[in-house]
Amino acid sequence: xxxxxxxxxxxxxxxxxxxxxxxxxxxxxxxxxxxxxxxxxxxxxxxxxxxxxxxxxxxx
Length: 60
Known about the structure:
The protein has 60 residues and is mostly helical. 57% of the residues lie in helices and 0% in strands.
């Protein structure tokens, strides 16, 4: 999951993360976790207090 996020959001190739020293890799993972948590909190909430869910497929 972290490599996918780094690839799409930071435009880093997977080998860049794999070759990081352990402490730097831990820092990158912590930053990604925090960013994902912030994005989750910013999602719209409907009147019932639940997060708004978007259907994966719409039936006609």
